[in-house]
Write a structure and sequence with these properties.
The protein has about 220 residues and is mainly alpha-helical. It is built from 10 helices and no strands. The model is unreliable at about 95-110 and about 215-223 (pLDDT under 50).
């Protein structure tokens, strides 16, 4: 793979990942509820799912989701249901009252952010990213366009995959930092209830975006 080809891949990835998708939106939701630092774990869940999807695509299973309407639909609607569920829970849950006996300095300085559980942050975004069936078909269709058939395959796949992961992780964090800046403004206007409702709406919006993903054209033509 030449340097020029890699630069072309980078330009395409930037264009692709710059459009906020479900993983970006859940990162934004987490940053408003838990702060920006915990979103580093959220973003890790996203790229971990992406790496698994890349491996699946590399061994040819992406073709299954690109040609099987039922497989595509199952993965897609499972992801939609998960997003909708955690979105509704975030929207409807009541804020945890502050504990007057808690005098921990760090707690006082976190500006009202909720306590974050790393496993849940990672799992939420991992499941959201894994529930996007278009990703596998996308990787299966994108990577071959930049691969030199005359060179070893594994190093090229590693370079392409690592490049995508770096850009994707960075994008989730950039959007999350922007969302975190909204948190103090929202808190002044309605407290933790507003934060929960806004983050819930963001997650529900992510579910709607995922639900609007069309069946691949190859399936539509055969149907």
């Amino acid at each position: 793979m030449s340097f020029d080809v890699w630069l072309g891949f980078c330009a395409l990835v930037v264009l692709v990942v710059s459009t906020p998708g479900p993983s970006v939106l859940i990162g934004m939701s987490h940053s408003m509820r838990y702060g920006i630092k915990p979103v580093m774990i959220t973003a890790l869940g996203d790229v971990t799912a992406n790496m698994i999807q890349m491996v699946i695509a590399a061994v040819g299973l992406g073709a299954i989701l690109a040609t099987s309407e039922s497989a595509f639909a199952i993965v897609k609607w499972a992801g939609v249901a998960f997003l909708m569920g955690i979105g509704l829970m975030a929207f409807l849950r009541k804020p945890t009252p502050a504990n007057p006996e808690n005098n921990d300095t760090e707690t006082k300085l976190n500006h009202g952010y909720e306590a974050a559980r790393p496993g849940r942050l990672f799992g939420d975004c991992f499941l959201v990213a894994a529930g996007n069936p278009k990703a596998i078909a996308f990787f299966g269709a994108l990577f071959p366009q930049f691969i030199d058939a005359g060179s070893p395959l594994a190093p090229q796949l590693f370079i392409l995959g690592a490049t995508f992961v770096i850009f994707d992780y960075s994008l989730v964090m950039i959007y999350a930092m922007g969302a975190a800046r909204l948190m103090p403004w929202l808190k002044r206007r309605g407290g933790n209830n507003v934060i929960g409702r806004v983050s819930g709406v963001v997650l529900i919006l992510a579910a709607v975006i995922l639900s609007l993903i069309d069946t691949p054209q190859s399936i539509a033509r055969e149907s």
